[in-house]
Amino acid sequence: MDSAALGYSRDAVRGDTLAVRFQRVRAASERLAAPLSPEDQTIQSMPDVSPTKWHLAHTSWFFETFLLKRFAPGYKTFDPQYGYLFNSYYEAAGPRHPRPQRGLLSRPGAADVMRYRAHVTSHMQTLLRAEQPEIAALIELGIAHEEQHQELILMDIKHVLSLNPLKPAYHSGAAVRPMEVAALRWSEYEGGLREVGHDGGGFAFDNEGPRHRIWLDPYRLACRLVTCGEYRAFIEDGGYRRPELWLSDGWAIVSARGWEAPLYWERHDRGWQIFTLGGMRTLDPSEPVCHVSYYEADAFARWAGKRLPTEAEWEIAAEGIPPAGNFADSGRLHPARAPAREGPSQVFGDVWEWTSSAYAAYPGFRAAGGAVGEYNGKFMANQMVLRGGCAVTPPGHVRDTYRNFFYPDARWPFGGIRLAEDA
Amino acid sequence: MDSAALGYSRDAVRGDTLAVRFQRVRAASERLAAPLSPEDQTIQSMPDVSPTKWHLAHTSWFFETFLLKRFAPGYKTFDPQYGYLFNSYYEAAGPRHPRPQRGLLSRPGAADVMRYRAHVTSHMQTLLRAEQPEIAALIELGIAHEEQHQELILMDIKHVLSLNPLKPAYHSGAAVRPMEVAALRWSEYEGGLREVGHDGGGFAFDNEGPRHRIWLDPYRLACRLVTCGEYRAFIEDGGYRRPELWLSDGWAIVSARGWEAPLYWERHDRGWQIFTLGGMRTLDPSEPVCHVSYYEADAFARWAGKRLPTEAEWEIAAEGIPPAGNFADSGRLHPARAPAREGPSQVFGDVWEWTSSAYAAYPGFRAAGGAVGEYNGKFMANQMVLRGGCAVTPPGHVRDTYRNFFYPDARWPFGGIRLAEDA
Amino acid sequence: MDSAALGYSRDAVRGDTLAVRFQRVRAASERLAAPLSPEDQTIQSMPDVSPTKWHLAHTSWFFETFLLKRFAPGYKTFDPQYGYLFNSYYEAAGPRHPRPQRGLLSRPGAADVMRYRAHVTSHMQTLLRAEQPEIAALIELGIAHEEQHQELILMDIKHVLSLNPLKPAYHSGAAVRPMEVAALRWSEYEGGLREVGHDGGGFAFDNEGPRHRIWLDPYRLACRLVTCGEYRAFIEDGGYRRPELWLSDGWAIVSARGWEAPLYWERHDRGWQIFTLGGMRTLDPSEPVCHVSYYEADAFARWAGKRLPTEAEWEIAAEGIPPAGNFADSGRLHPARAPAREGPSQVFGDVWEWTSSAYAAYPGFRAAGGAVGEYNGKFMANQMVLRGGCAVTPPGHVRDTYRNFFYPDARWPFGGIRLAEDA
Amino acid sequence: MDSAALGYSRDAVRGDTLAVRFQRVRAASERLAAPLSPEDQTIQSMPDVSPTKWHLAHTSWFFETFLLKRFAPGYKTFDPQYGYLFNSYYEAAGPRHPRPQRGLLSRPGAADVMRYRAHVTSHMQTLLRAEQPEIAALIELGIAHEEQHQELILMDIKHVLSLNPLKPAYHSGAAVRPMEVAALRWSEYEGGLREVGHDGGGFAFDNEGPRHRIWLDPYRLACRLVTCGEYRAFIEDGGYRRPELWLSDGWAIVSARGWEAPLYWERHDRGWQIFTLGGMRTLDPSEPVCHVSYYEADAFARWAGKRLPTEAEWEIAAEGIPPAGNFADSGRLHPARAPAREGPSQVFGDVWEWTSSAYAAYPGFRAAGGAVGEYNGKFMANQMVLRGGCAVTPPGHVRDTYRNFFYPDARWPFGGIRLAEDA
Fold first, then answer.
1. Taking each helix axis from N to C terminus, what angle separates A133-162 and A110-128, rounded to the nearest 10 degrees?
2. Which has more confidence, D334 or B194?
C-alpha cells in the first residue's frame, strides 16, 4: 500500500493546520476500512487483535473522552454505553469491556460505528479552532493515536484474513519482481558520549524523552535489512531446530508452538509462499524478512555471527535521515532496496527493526498526568523496542526518536531485522 | 416466537409433499436469519455455538454433499472450498475447518451464503421429484436436519447476543403477564413390561429405534414443569451453596464457574431479570424454568425430595399426546400453563426436559451406513437425554420417541425440569 | 501379585469374625506399602492418583471419623489437623485439602502415618466387640473401603513408577511364558424378564441395590477376555487412526493425547514392551489386554464387529460363578486363560471389564444417610460401569453385583474387554 | 540462618585453596539437607521449584559432566541414566528430564543421591590438584554453581513447606524482637561517566563483564531497605487495589492471582503472620520486606513517589562495601538495621534488591564456549536484575558486580526493595 492509499502526500503532512490534519486522519481511517465487509470488521482472531470497527470506534472514543467531554460545552455523549465498550486500557477512564471479548460485539455494527465517527468528527470542529495549548496538545495526541490505530487496523486484519482457508486479499496487491540484492555493507559509528531521546520540539510521545546522555562503544550497522533469502538460508541450515541459537524463552516457544518459519510463510511444493494484504504470493528473496518475533531476530543474528543493535545505536545512525523519504512511491508492501547512498538504507517505513533494548523509561521520565498518562509508561516491562516504522505506518508518523514496543514473541507486527556488530 | 414466525401453520405441516416441505424448511431458515445483521451472523461466542451464517451454509452443504453430489447428474459444486468450511463432523466426508474456529470466517459473507443457499435449493428441485426411496429418505433427513439447525440458530444467537453489554433483542418480544400457577399435581403410571422407541412408521432418527421392551416400576410424573418461582425458592434456600444437593461433577462445576442461577438470569436491585430473544425483562415466576444444566435439574429434584424421570418413563407418559398441541398460539417464549386436563401438560414445545437417562444405544441399535451413519451414534457417551422439544423447536419436528441429548453442563439449550417420583 | 502377598488365603476370607477381618485388612495395607520407600509413598503423579501414604492415612481417617469419634467414649483424636488432610471427598465431614495437592504433603511422613495407623487400629479393638448393628455395619464398610484403597495403592503406584525414566519395579515380577490362546467361543443367554442387583443379604455397597427387574433380549458373551495379541491386531489395522471406529469424544481424546496403544505399552525395536508392577517386560500376546479406556474398549468392539455387554448382561452371566475362583494361584498379574469349562472364564480377578452401561442409580436407589451417604451416589454422572475385579483386587472383595465405575477416558485402572453380541 | 549453619566462617572463605573450598561447599550442601526427611526432599511444589535431592544430585552431575568425564582418566560414570535425570538446561549436554516433572522421581532416593555425591566428591580429589587453568576455572565455576544451588535449596524448600497446612519449620527459628527503625536517609551520588562490571580479576560469572563505561545522572539511594512496616502501610492504603500504581502486566497478575500481600504473609485476626524457615511467626515491622515480585517493588516505589535504582546506580553505590560485612552475626533471617554509618546499609546479605534494569548482555559480552556457555547468556530476556544477595546466600558468594535475575512475577526468591530518586 503506498501512501496515496492513505490519502496522504508527502508534502501535505508538513505544515498543515491541526484542523486539516485532524480531518485527514479521520478520513484516512475510514478509507482503510472501506475494502472490508461488515463481517470482516467484526472478527477478533486472537486476544491481541481488535476488530476493525472496534479500532474505528475506539479512536473516536479517545477524542470524545479526552476532548469533547472535557472541553466542548454542552456536549452530549453519543451513546453512554460506548464508554464501556471502546475504552481500551485507561483505568482512570472507568471500567471497560474485556479485551479478549471485543470479537463478541456484533452491535454496534459497522454502520453504527460510522455514525459515531461522524458525530465525533463533527463535534470536534469547534475544538479544532480553540486556542488553549492543552486542547491542541491533546488533539495532536489524538491524531498520533489514530495513526497508530491505522497501522493496527492493517496489522490486525492481515491476521484475521490469514486464518481464513480462503485466504482473502485486503487489496489487489502489486506485481512483485525480485530485485538484485546488494552485498551487505556496514556503516561504522564512533560511539562516545552521545545524546538520544526527543528534545521536546514538536510532537512526540512521552516515552521518547527526556533527551539524555548515553555512552556508546564504537559499532557498525548493516546498511540494509536482512532479506527473506537470507532468512531462508537460516531456516535451511536448521535454524529452527538448533537450541544453541536461541534464547531459552525463545526456544521454549519455538518448541511449544511448532514454529518453523516466520508468520505468514507457508511451505508449498513449489517453494515458500507468503500471505500478504494482497493475498498469497510467492516469496521474494530480495524483500526484507518480516513478521519475525524478537526471538527469531535474535536467533538469526546469533546464527549470522552478529547481534541486534541497541535502540541508542539505531537512533544515532538514524539521526538526520528524513523519516518520510522511503515512503512515497512504494508499489508494494515490503520493497527490497539496495543501499542507495553512504549510510544505512531502509531505515524508515519498510519493517519495524527489533532492537536488543528492553522497553524501559529513559532517565528522568515522567508519565503525563491524568488518564493519558497511561498511554505508554505502564507498558514498560517485558517488551522490546522496535524502531523505524514499516510499510503500513502512516507517513509522517515516525521519527528517529520514535519507540515502538512489543512482547518478544509477537509476530503479527511487521517486525524485521537489521544486524549490528562491535567495531 | 410463535410458529407463525417460522412460517408454519399447524395444519400445514401434516400431509404436505416432500417438495413443499423442503421449500418451506429452506425459507423458514432464511426468515430466522432475517432480523440479524451480517455482523450478528458472524460471531461464535463459544466453541459450542456456531455463527448463524455457518448454520445457513452447513444445512445447504448437507443437501449438496449427500444428495446433489451423489444423485444430481452433472451437478457442479458451488465452491469446492465450502466442503472444507461447512462440514460439521462427518469424518467420512473429508477434512474440515475446526469447530472452535467457525467464528474466524468473515468470508464467505452472509450474502455469499444466501447465494449458496439459492444455488442448492434450486438444484434440489429435480431430486425432489425423484422416485428412489433412498433419495426421498435422505431429503427427509435433510429437512429434519435443517429443522434441528433452526433451533440451533436461535439457541446460538441468544447466547451471542447475551454476551453483548448492550443486550440487543432478536425480536420485539411479547408482553409478559404472570399467570397463576396451579398446584403441583401428579399423574401416576402403572409400569410393567412396556415398549418404547420408534416403530419405524414415518420418519425418525436412527437413535429413536429399535422399539424394544423395558420393565418399569410404578411411578408418578409431575403434571407440569417446574416454574421459575419454584426454582427461585431453591436459590433462596442456598441451593447453589449446598454440596450435599449436587452430583460431585456438578458441584465442581458450580464452584469453578461460579454459578448462582440459571444461565441468562441476572440479579438486579429490582429483582431477577432474564435475557430472552426479546431482550432483558423481569422474570415471570409462573413460567417454566429454562436454561438449566442437567446438574441443576438434578440438584433441584434432590432438594425437592423428588427425582428426574427416566426417558422411558417420560415416553410412556407422552404416548398419545399430540406433539403440536402446545404450539400454535404462544405469544411468548416460555408460556406458563396450568394443567388443562388429566395427564401431564407442557409435554411438547415448552422446554426440553432433562431425564436421568444417559444417552445410549437402544438394544439392537445399528447406525445407518455411510457418512450419515455419523449422525447420532458416535455421540453416545457422556451426554444426557432430553425430551419434549422447546418453544423454539420447529412445529412438527418432535415426537414422543424423539431423543435430544446434551452434555450435563450445557445451559445454552432451552432445558428445563419435570419432576418424577416412585409410586 | 498373588493373594498370598496380600496375606489372604482363599478360605480365610470366609466366615471369619469382624475382628479378624479388620486386623487382616489393616495388616494387608501395610504389607502393600512395605516395598515402597518414603519417597515412593509421597508422589502424586496426576490429580487422579494419591500418594501411598495418603491412602494409608485416609483409610485410618475413615475409621477414626465414622467410628472412633462417634462411638468410642473419650477417644482423643490423633492429630486434629489430619481431618483436614485426609478427608477425601466427604463434604459433610468438613473442609479438606484439595485433591490435586496431595503430593505437596511431605509431612506427615511415612513413619508418622504408620503411627497414626497403629493408633487407630489399637483404639478400634473395643468397637470390634461392640454389638450395635450400626457399628458392625460401619466396620464392614470401613473394611470394604480399605480393600478398595488397597487396589488403588497398586493402581496408583504403578502410575507413579511408570513415569520414572528408571522404570523401577514394585516387586520382582514373575516369569511370563506365553500360553496358547483358545479360540473365541461364545456363551448364549436367553434373556427375558430377569432380576439384577444385590438382594440385601450380606455386605454390599449401596449402589448395588435394590434388586430389580430388567428385560433382556437374548445375547451372547465371549467366553474369555480380549487378549493383547488381538488388541495388537487392532493397532496394526490402524485402529488408532480410523475415526469411524470411535465415539466422537473418544476420537477427540485420541487426537489430543496422541494415544497409539494402551497405557504402559511402549513400542521398542524388538517389539512391544509393557510396564508392570514387576518392571518392564515383553508383551505376552496371550494375556488379557489391560489399561485401556472405555473409548478404546468400545472402538475395539466396533472394529471386531461386536459390542460391549451391558452391566445387566454381565451380571446375569456371572451369577453363580464363585468370585474368588480365579484368584488363588496366580503367579502373574494378568494370567491368560483358556476357557476351562462351559460358560465364561476370567470373570473375576483378571481385569475389570468395561460395560456399555453408564453408572446410574438403580430404580428405587436411596443413598445411605449421613456422610457415608456420599460414598457412591454423588458420582452417578459421566462414568461407566466396570465389572468383575482385577488381579490386584483383594480376594473376597468382589461379587457378581459389584459395580466399579470410572470416567471413560481412564486408563490407569486395570480395565480390559469382554465382547458381546445380540443372539 | 547464620553463616555458621552453613559451616562457613567469614575469614575462612578468603584465601583457602580450591581443594579446601571444594570440600567445604560439598559438605555445606549436605548439611543444608540434613534437617529434611526423604519425603521433604522429593517434592516439587511448582515448576520453578526443584526437589532438594534433585539439587544435591544436579550439583554433582555438574562436576561429573564438565570435569570428571572430560578430565579424569578412566572415570566411570556413576549411573548412565543420571545424565538424563540431572541435567538442568544444558542443551549441549544432551536430552534431559522435563523440569516440571522433577517431582515425579521417587528414585533415586535421598540415600542414593548421597552415594552419588560421595562418588563424585571422592573422584574429584585428583582433579583438585591438577594444574591446568581450564580445570581450575571449571572447578571454581562448579563451586559457585553449587553455592547458587545452596540458596535455591532453601528458597525451594521454604516454598514446599509453606504449602503444607501443617506449616512445618525447616529449623527452630530465632527469637524476633522488633527494633526501632531509623528514619529514611538518602545517600547522594554524582553520576557522570563511570565504569561498571567485573574487571576480570578473581572469579566472576561471565554475565558480570566486561567492565564498561556508562553515563549516570546524579541520583540518591535510600540508606536502608524498605521495611515490612512501610510495606504494610502500602497495603493498608489500598496498594493492591489501585491499578494506577502498577505496570499493566503487574496489574493483570495481581488480578488473576488475587495477590493482596507479599508471598508468605497471612492475615490473621491477631495481625499479619509470616511463614519463615523457622515456621509461622508474627510479622516484625522493622525487618526488610521480602518475597515481593518486581511488580510489587515497582508499585511500592511509585506509591512512595520514588523509583527503583538501575543496576548501575546500585553497583556504583556498593563499590568498596565489603560483601560479607552484614553477614556474620545474624541470628535471624531478615535483620532490620538502622544505618550504621555514612552510606547505604543492608547492601549485602539481607534481601536481593530488585533493580529497574532488564537482564541483558553488557556491551561486548561473549558467552563462554561449550556447554557452560549456556550458563547465563541464554536467559537474557524477560527477566529483571537483582543485586546484593540475601540472608540465605552463602557467604563469600556475592560481589558488587554480581547479577542475579528473575522473572518480574517471581516471589519465591528473597526479593526486597531499596528506593532511589533523581538528585
1. 160
2. B194
Locate cell 409400569: which residue? B191
DSSP output for C147-159: HHHHHHHHHHHHH
**CB < 8 Å to A312, chain D:** none
The mean per-residue pLDDT over the stretch A377-402 comes to: 95
Q: Which residues of D touch chain A, with CB atoms under 8 Å apart? A: 89, 91-92, 193, 212-215, 217, 243-244, 246-251, 294-295, 298, 356-358, 360-361, 363-364, 374, 378-382, 408, 422
Residue D226 backbone class (left: φ over 0; alpha: ψ -120 to 50; beta: rest): beta
Find, among C34, C35, C23, C33, the residue nearest to C54 by Cα. C33
Residue C75 has pLDDT above 90, yes or no: yes
Burial class (CB in 10 A: 0-12, 13-18, 19+), A180: exposed
> 3-state class of D221 per DSSP?
strand
Region C331-357: mean pLDDT is 73
pLDDT score, position C229: 97
What's the whole-number mean pLDDT along residues D294-321?
Answer: 97
Percent of chain C with pLDDT over 90: 81
User: What 3-state DSSP class applies to B32?
Assistant: helix
Chain C partners (3+ C-beta pairs within 8 A): B, D
Quick one: average pLDDT of A72-84? Answer: 96
Candidate from A282-291, C100-109, C221-230, D89-98 with smallest mean pLDDT: D89-98
| Long-range Cβ contact pairs of B90-96 (< 8 A, separation 24 or more) | B90/B65, B90/B371, B90/B374, B91/B374, B91/C243, B91/C244, B91/C251, B92/B370, B92/B371, B92/B373, B92/B374, B92/C244, B93/B65, B93/B371
Give me the amino acid identity at B281: R
Which pLDDT score is estimated for A16?
83
CA nearest neighbour of D423 among D216, D204, D263, D281: D216
HEC string for B135-164:
HHHHHHHHHHHHHHHHHHHHHHHHHHHHCC
Interface confidence, given as ipTM, is: 0.94
Q: What percent of chain B has pLDDT over 90?
A: 81
Q: H helices within C110-188, ranges in order?
A: 110-128, 133-162
Kind and range of the H or E run holding C352: strand C352-358
Residue C216 · residue C194 · CB < 8 Å: yes
CA-closest candidate to residue D72, choices D139, D10, D24, D148: D139
Of residues D37, D108, D165, nearest to C106 (C-beta)? D37
**DSSP assignments along A150-166, one per residue:** HHHHHHHHHHHHHTSTT
Which of D87, D196, D215, D308 is the best residue to mutate to test the A interface, defined by the most A CB atoms within 10 Å of its own CB? D215
pLDDT at D157: 98
Nearest Cα residue in chain B from C382: B382
At B52-68, the pLDDT tens digits run 999 999 999 999 999 99
Beta-sheet pairing, C265-268 with C219-222:
unpaired
CA angle C307, C313, C318 (to 5 degrees): 120
| Residue type at A46 in one-letter notation | M
Q: In angstroms, how far is CA B153 from the centroid of its own chain?
A: 10
Is the Cβ–Cβ distance between D348 and D327 less than 8 Å?
Answer: yes
Cβ–Cβ pairs < 8 A, chains C and D: 86
Residues paired with residue C281 on neighbouring β-strands, in sequence order: C274
DSSP-derived 3-state class of residue D267: strand
Confidence of residue A333 (pLDDT cuts 50, 70, 90): very low
Q: What is the pTM of this model?
A: 0.94
Please report where in the chains the cell 542507495 appears, as a residue. Answer: A340
Q: Measure B422 CA to nearest chain C CA, in Å.
A: 7
Say yes or no to pLDDT of B332 above 60.
Answer: no
| Omega before A108 within 30 of 0, i.e. cis | yes
- State the cell numbers at B353: 426436559
